[in-house]
User: What shape does this take?
Amino acid sequence: MKKRTNASLLVAAAGLALASCATTAQAPTAATTPAPAPAPVAETFPKGVGLNVANLDPSVSACDNFFEYASGNWLKNNPIPAAEVRWGSFNELGDKNNAVMRSILDEAAANRTAAKGTNAQKVGDYYATAMDSAAINTAGLKYLQPELDKISAIKTSTQLQTAMARQQMLSTGAFFGAYVGQDDKISSQYAVNMYQGGLSLPDRDYYLKDDARSKAIRAAYTTYLTNTFKMLGESEAAAAKNAATVLRIETRLAKASKSRVDLRDPYANYNKMTVAQLQKAYPNLNPQHILSDLGMGSVKEVIVGQPAFFKELNTLVKTEPLADLKTYMRWHLATSFTSALPQAFGDESFKFTQVLTGAKKQQPRWKRMLRSTDGALGEAFGQLYVDKAFPPAAKQKALEMVNNIKASMGEHIQQLDWMSDATKKEALRKLSTFTVKIGYPDKWKDYSALTISRDSYLQNVAASRMWAFKDMTNKLGKPVDRTEWGMTPPTVNAYYNPSMNEIVFPAGIMQPPFFDPNADDAVNYGGMGAVIGHEITHGFDDQGRQYDAEGNLKDWWTKEDADKFTQRADMVGKQYSAFSPLDSVFVNGKLTMGENLADLGGLSIAYTALQKQLQQKYGDGPRPKFDGLTPEQRFFLSWAQVWRTNARPEYLRQQVMTDPHSPAQFRTVGPLMNMPQFFEAFGCKDDAKMVRAQADRAKVW
Assistant: This one.
């Protein structure tokens, strides 16, 4: 598993909410449900764009539950589709985006005359083989068999190490993760990193907890393991034995793994060792051999993320029978290629997914294969997408918003009453050096060394993984490529990368409800502006603040300022840990700390930027209302419509265990409960549920 350095907006697809609005909606003015406007002098207002006031539920007070007030009618009228585990604005935009991408891919797949080696040929052939279920079913295990045979042939520890390297290149997820990325403390250089991994369940706690739900998931997982081994040709008894073997080995790895909260400490994850030290510490693993097989034999140093995990892995490969380690590798190999194997493998996988997430129906193959194509050939596919779906004007408007919100962040830093001038100076220097990437890369990846054909989807998947691994290891010894992107252009998401000190907004997110060129400033600043502010704030959240202006892991804070930051961040953590999406299930305020800080800071600085924008346009004169709503009210409603979501309880349980993002309803209300600007916009009284007592309000940035 590659370590998480990038802080992204979310882990999902995205939503559309563009509609013309009713003309007489009245905004609430108090903590109680507003009384209807008295007749006969009802004021009329122009229709707004970008907010559909029909989605509001005026029976709920904005000051008691803003999530329900802002989106209540939408939530009632938009049940979760059977093939989804949650449904919200992100999914709506995702569907709109998918339709554009599907038409591109269908056209590419139908084109049998594209010149060999071109992006059009590779994208078309990849998607065509991915969608050819009949050929995949007919092939059976034919194209997987050579890799299975390699594992079966292992007889010595040296051959095992070669196989472990092969698993890395094929990205099967077995044992651990090895990757090349920026050195956290020398951001101008690339380094080899080794990180804990090797688990199939979403988190280590699924193996270790003894509550009824965890036991039920492990039972379902055992069934999934057993049935998959049977499809690989094992007898019932052998398949059951193999299932127990995999679960035992993965449980050992889970016990040695750090929790997701502990993994948030970048200093603890930075343990640089010479290869000689590595070899001495983990002789059974034989890292020198594995590195050589991975094409990195000349490397002198490696950054080990979790030494205690590798100590256990070193013991495990010596103490577990070789036959059991081979069984474990076969499982990871086969399940990493599930979509390229006969349908029965996918059906079995989905049965287990249902237990984890509550999904009622599998997503259509075209949606899954669209994601696969984007993952394998993202920048080849992305060029086709950008040509069709991303107008240059959107990029220019986004750049203007970024500049305004960066300036707003600078003002917030300068006005902080808890930070010393010395730390402020460094914070402002870091802010001034942010790199901004919008839409798509200036320099596209070169896929010329990757061969894709119409022969076999599984071979295409394997080839693209091997190419990606080689593309990554080729960076060693070269200058850091600061033009590189970590997301593909169609992605509906955004991220901050601390080692690059950059904020990145792919073309996919530059659409309603985030950004709408026809909407008023309030809607765009509450949507895209808050997203921009969110990513900027990640540079100063509990993790991002530990990196300096050059992207190095380096302490640039005075001790007093760091302590004051921690006190304020801890207050946010306690607030979110009290949120409960389901009975007896609570948000983990420590796991979600970075995202919660980014939501709170991002919304605050976007609000300030909007006020400056309105001042420039209207001065001290009246500001226009749309649908009877002030710009301030539209700003907060725009924020809420971004996060409107219905979610299955199984999905929510998994989210609070594994996701650094809080559930959508708490992303909506959590920041607002700390913001006097929100209370004022909706006339909230001090005793309203959305209003925290002054002493309990958090304000960091």
The two ends are 32 Å apart (CA to CA). Residues 12-41 have pLDDT under 50 and may be disordered. The CA atoms of residues 357 and 650 lie 5 Å apart. The chain has two domains: 7-21+51-96+392-446+481-696, 145-357.
